[in-house]
Specification:
By secondary structure, the chain is an alpha+beta fold. It has one domain. The protein is built from eleven helices and 15 strands. The strands form three sheets. Strands 5, 8, 9, 10, 11, 12, 13, 14 and 15 form a nine-stranded antiparallel sheet that branches. It has a four-stranded antiparallel sheet with strand order 1-2-3-4. The radius of gyration is 22 Å and the shape is globular.
């Protein structure tokens, strides 16, 4: 979830967003989280906005892929090499004959790191439109609050009947729990991984499109599950189930557990026909545990999968990632956390940074700094701390080759996927001020109920994939995730979440 303040105007809500907000409003009323007067006033205002939008803008709710969004400058080009440049209001020159460039990201699809410009955008990929209490108020309230907060409200919240896991004839279940191989044999082959990915896909898509958290909890774990059971928090329309267009597998030789492999799936964006590549890491912790999705990121605007596996001819499986002393995989998530932290604190990239310019580095950094300035003009202060814990969230590296000029394969690359977490605390700059959450859940989304607060604390995550090669800048090629918990301290000293 992102939000714009001050000099960056927010996009008007689309009809689907407004309809989704109305649905969420109704759920909050049923859950007892809104009084009747507040419900009726907010409903009337949203319905009036919907009538206006439908009358004045009957065209598609989202701009075409070639159209710049107000939240991202039209000069969002990529410099594949060089250090990150400071923010400037003019476009940088395009790269000359780039060897490789990271995929572009549409601003209405890609979430910004916590503490970035907040805007009521449509956050696709990994989205479940959890509006107010879409999964039942209990799930939202108990997850977002410390002990004893809103306990009475949570206990009286009606729980809707969940849609059964859409696994016809338990086909996926049998693949996830297939008997473990004998000692010394391959844990999973390329063909087995392909069958597993294709069986996971329709089950996960149905779970997301039906907003069924039980399905997600059954087939995912780790950061992937934590984000997917939340999804978009700012009135996004429910996603539609998508189909697979292409799959690239990255299956290393493994003879014992825990085991993992990576899959890149070419599909479409949830709310447009534009191409999107989903990056998954599948894991199995032991012979008695099932395969799960532990990590998921994505990138858009590329009509093909840009990475291919580097094969070991002796095994026919994924080669061992090459050793590169200048880019230690385990250090990369922490380096990305420090990179974003430097932008947030100083308004510039770290000196002599190894990260190349891209949406997820330079442009995100510019947004982080701009948000701090916007907050100050509104009498607010925001402190954000980024961190990475590979032991808790997982970190995986795979040998890959990328497509260069004229589709020439460029081997020797390593794609490392890990998670950066953040904690953002927003407070008034002056004594007696307040942090205001509006009745339509702006700016913090529907994990925080409307009100006036002395402080608001957001926690969230960003699953990110980082591409390295000897002697080359580091690129962030995909990301997913946003806020997962929000807690506000009311001016009277009590606490509140959604």
């Amino acid at each position: 979830m992102s939000e714009a303040r001050g000099g960056s105007p927010a996009s008007p809500d689309s009809p689907d967003q407004l309809r989704a907000k109305l649905q969420g409003l109704e759920r909050m009323r049923v859950a007892g989280l809104l009084g009747e007067g507040q419900y009726q006033a907010t409903k009337a205002r949203l319905e009036a906005q919907l009538d206006t939008v439908q009358t004045t803008a009957p065209a598609a709710d989202l701009p075409p892929l070639t159209t710049a969004s107000p939240q991202q400058p039209a000069f969002a080009t990529y410099q594949p090499y060089g250090t990150a440049a400071p923010y400037a209001p003019q476009p940088p020159p395009p790269p000359a004959a780039p060897e490789w460039a990271p995929p572009a990201a549409q601003p209405w699809q890609q979430p910004q790191p916590g503490g970035g410009r907040r805007t009521t955008l449509i956050a696709t990929g990994l989205t479940i439109a959890l509006l107010a209490a879409a999964f039942a108020g209990v799930a939202v309230v108990t997850r977002s609050n410390p002990p004893n907060t809103l306990a009475g409200t949570a206990a009286n919240t009606p729980v809707p009947t969940a849609t059964p896991t859409p696994d016809a004839a338990a086909a996926l279940a049998s693949l996830r729990t297939a008997p473990a191989p004998k000692d010394g044999s391959v844990v999973i082959t390329h063909d087995q991984a392909d069958k597993l990915v294709r069986a996971f896909w329709p089950v996960r898509e149905a779970g997301l499109s039906h907003r069924n958290p039980d399905t997600i909890r059954a087939i995912e774990d780790g950061p992937a599950r934590e984000w997917d059971v939340i999804g978009c928090t700012m009135g996004c329309p429910p996603p539609n189930a998508r189909s697979i267009r292409d799959v690239h597998l990255f299956v290393p030789l493994q003879t014992r557990f825990p085991a993992s492999f990576m899959a890149h799936v070419l599909t479409t964006e949830y709310h447009t026909s534009g191409p999107q590549v989903e990056i998954f890491v599948f894991t199995r912790q032991s012979a008695t545990a099932p395969w799960t999705i532990s990590f998921n990121a994505y990138y858009s605007q590329v009509d093909h999968i840009i990475e291919a596996a580097t094969e070991d001819p002796s095994t026919g499986l994924e080669a061992t990632p090459p050793v590169d002393p200048s880019h230690v995989p385990s250090a990369l998530p922490g380096m990305l956390a420090a990179y974003w932290q430097h932008w947030k604190d100083t308004g510039s990239a770290p000196p002599n940074t190894q990260f190349g310019d891209s949406y997820f580095t330079t442009q995100i950094g510019q947004g982080l700094w701009a948000t701090r300035q916007d907050d100050h003009t509104l009498g607010l202060d925001e402190h954000v701390a980024y961190s990475a814990d590979n032991a808790a969230d997982g970190m995986w590296s795979f040998a890959v080759s990328t497509s260069g000029a004229n589709a020439t394969p460029l081997p020797g690359r390593v794609l490392t996927c890990g998670t950066v977490r953040y904690r953002a605390v927003t407070t008034p700059l002056k004594a007696g001020g307040a942090v205001v959450q509006s009745v339509d859940f702006d700016p913090f989304g529907n994990l925080l109920r409307p009100g006036r607060y002395s402080s608001v604390t957001e926690s969230g995550l960003h699953m990110s994939c980082i591409l390295t090669a000897p002697g080359r800048p580091i690129f962030v090629t995909g990301a997913a995730g946003q806020q997962t918990k929000v807690f506000g301290v009311s001016l009277d000293g009590s606490g509140a979440s959604a």
